[in-house]
TrEMBL record:
Domain of life: Eukaryota
Membrane topology: Single-pass membrane protein; Single-pass type II membrane protein
Protein's name according to its UniProt entry: Methyltransferase
Class of the enzyme per the UniProt entry, highest EC level: transferase
Disordered: region residues: 50-171
Compositionally biased tracts (Low complexity): 120-135
Originating organism: Oryza meyeriana var. granulata
A GO term from the CC aspect: trans-Golgi network
GO biological process: methylation
PANTHER family: METHYLTRANSFERASE, SAM-DEPENDENT METHYLTRANSFERASE
């Protein structure tokens, strides 16, 4: 396959995670959170071999309504839930030849039936459309998973006994992190046992052996978040009641306190006079960057409050911002509350949870990462992530100041980037902000690597898969670039927005896609399917006020068709590829979207109350042998829409 022969599972991690699985816990959580509607809708989806996207059925012709203005406050709460479909609506699965088949028996203990049966007349366009939603990779065909491929690099994972029934009455979590508790980032017991924190080990993921069975409390005075785009400029103080960043960075126009609000003037350490001027300055320094055309997907390292990524939306650019939890108090939480994409992560000892060769530009503005030390191990991780021909934009004091330390760092960086075959295409100073940037370009072929007098850093061995990203240690080596013009990374993606809808050039019809059809046809059918589902059902049949939705997660994204179909709305979508699913995340990036790999039996690396809407298409049935109670903390407490049909709060995602 052209997509990698693996999943993201690295079984070197501690041997306790699968013990989280408990069906009885699922019942308690469903009752506690009134998620019967969610589960029933997601469990009645049908096999793609029978229905859309490959054999579309007749759909209602009504067009989606226009959305309300984006900056008004939420309407009064409506807690009425939509009607449910019965399990009997699901047709029998279709068996495909040459593929391992298994039958999943219904777990009557994990579902609750609705108390009110809807009248027959209610089964109109919305329910009919929901019944055509597809399962994903019910059989994988020729697709391999990284779980199988990673066994050569890890120990075998031991089976764990399932836990006993979890309590049905949930208590609030009692942790030092309080309402900001992230289980895998706030595991103080594990952090205190670390032998060293030299490489930011204390900011990396350390998931607890005993899963928390508690609910994360709300901050005192919490209220429904302000809607986009007004939220980019101000948020409620009580929702993120942290002021240390105001004290540290107020003079740099990061964030200020204004009555009951926190306001964001749009500045940053390197762009005190506004992010848009800085963004345009970068493009002037290198025209080929071409925001919103050649450059669509950006990685922002050490993002602060993510104003850089927030204002890149004005240039039709999607930015994955990340920073460590609490390095600057609540910086990522500020970003998410503003409606700007971000995750809590650190450049420490592990690879970032992204595939190789997917970002058009990587940006670092005073991100405080020591790129030049230890053989350039951290900069080599950026090299792994950049498209061949992609750019690294570095704005830091070594670029434009002449202090002894800055000069030494610049010289070390110059030596390192030359040895990595990066070309410095420009070094220029901004007269307005009085800062400088250096722009480096990754090579497009291997000729420079082969012509180096000293192979330092060395070329990575054949055993080192650049796409292996889940719990994989960093290496001080550089990966060869693809030479076959039909291989991913050998060509720059199509210009945006064409890349959103056009199958990637390396998606071969000679190979089967996730759903079993020729890969490029599979891709296109998936996209057409989700456009119809959203237009005919999600937009007007579920009672969701889309003007109140900004931060969206697709928990099992496959090709990213759901996110692509939402392009016309003012939302962004975090596409998640489970580590034991076919590795389609490179396809998602190729089409100008973004996402991460994740193990849904562990806590996601985000703050509580992050997402307005969670979407899952047959997620639970695929991971029901693994269990973890976590994701209720990830959903904003907006009491109207967040228990609606396809808005999933998967506190239980495993059996």
């Amino acid at each position: 396959m052209a997509f990698g022969s693996h999943t993201r599972l690295d079984v070197r991690r501690p041997q306790y995670h699968s013990s989280f699985c408990s069906p009885s816990t699922a019942v308690a959580v469903f009752v506690a959170l009134a998620l019967v509607a969610v589960w029933m809708v997601s469990s009645t989806l049908v096999a793609p071999a029978d229905f859309s996207p490959f054999h579309p059925t007749t759909r209602p012709s009504q067009s989606p309504p226009s959305t309300a203005p984006m900056d008004r406050h939420p309407p009064p709460v409506n807690q009425q839930q939509p009607a449910q479909e019965e399990d009997a609506n699901e047709p029998p699965p279709v068996t495909q030849p040459g593929v391992d088949q298994h039958t999943e028996l219904p777990d009557n203990g994990s579902q609750s039936q609705p108390t009110d049966n809807p009248p027959a007349a209610a089964e109109t366009g919305t329910q009919a459309e929901l019944l055509t939603e597809t399962t994903t990779e019910s059989d994988r065909g020729s697709w391999s998973t990284q779980a199988a491929g990673s066994n050569k690099d890890t120990h075998k994972q031991q089976q764990q006994q399932q836990q006993t029934a979890a309590p049905s009455n949930w208590k609030l979590c009692n942790t030092e992190a309080g309402p900001d508790y992230i289980p895998c980032l706030d595991n103080l017991q594990a952090i205190r046992k670390l032998r060293t924190t030299k490489h930011y080990e204390h900011r990396e993921r350390h998931c607890p052996q005993d899963p928390p069975t508690c609910l994360v409390p709300l901050p005192e005075g919490y209220t429904s978040p302000i809607w986009w785009p007004k939220s980019r400029d101000q948020i409620w103080y009580n929702n993120v009641p942290h002021t240390k960043l105001v004290e540290y960075k107020g003079h740099q126009n990061w964030v200020k306190v204004s009555g009951e609000y926190l306001t964001f003037p749009g500045g940053g350490t390197q762009f005190k006079h506004g992010a848009l001027h800085y963004i345009d300055f970068i493009q002037e320094a290198k025209k080929d960057i071409a925001w919103g055309k050649q450059t669509r997907v950006v990685l922002d390292v050490g993002c602060g409050v993510a104003s850089f990524g927030g204002y890149l939306f004005d240039r039709d650019v999607l930015t994955m911002s990340f920073a460590p939890k609490d390095e600057h108090e609540a910086q990522v939480q500020f970003a998410l509350e503003r409606g700007i994409p971000a995750i809590s992560a650190v450049m420490g000892t592990k690879r970032l949870p992204f595939p190789s060769r997917v970002f058009d530009v990587v940006h670092c503005a005073r991100c405080r990462v020591p790129w030049h030390i230890e053989g350039g191990k951290l900069l080599l991780e950026l090299d792994r992530l950049l498209h061949p021909g992609g750019y690294f934009v570095w704005s830091a004091t070594p670029v434009y100041q002449k202090l002894t330390e800055d000069v030494e760092i610049w010289e070390a960086m110059s030596t390192l980037t030359r040895s990595m075959c990066w070309e410095m295409v420009n070094k220029v100073k901004d007269r307005v902000n009085r800062v400088g940037i250096a722009i480096f370009r990754k090579p497009t072929d291997n000729s420079c690597y082969e012509g180096r007098s000293a192979a330092n850093p060395p070329i990575c061995g054949e055993y080192d898969d650049p796409d292996a990203a889940w719990n994989i240690s960093l290496q001080s080596c550089v990966h060869r670039l693809p030479t076959d013009p039909a291989i991913r990374g050998s060509q720059w993606p199509e210009e945006w927005p064409l890349r959103l809808e056009k199958p990637p050039y390396w998606l071969k019809n000679s190979e089967a896609g996730v759903y079993g059809k020729p890969a490029a046809e599979d891709f296109q059918a998936d996209y057409e399917h989700w456009k119809q589902v959203i237009s005919n059902s999600y937009m007007n049949g579920l009672g969701i006020d889309w003007s109140a939705v900004r931060n969206v997660m697709d928990m099992k994204a496959v090709y990213g068709g759901f996110a692509a179909a939402l392009r016309g709305l003012k939302v962004w979508v975090m596409n998640v590829i489970p580590i034991d699913s076919p590795d389609t995340l490179p396809i998602i990036y190729e089409r100008g979207l973004f996402g991460v790999y994740h193990d849904w039996c562990e806590s996601f690396s985000t703050y509580p109350r992050t997402y307005d809407l969670l979407h899952a298409n047959h997620l639970f049935s695929k991971i029901k042998k693994r269990y973890y109670l976590d994701l209720s903390k990830n959903v904003n407490t907006k009491p109207k829409i967040y228990v609606k049909a396809f808005t999933l709060l998967p506190d239980c995602c495993c059996q």
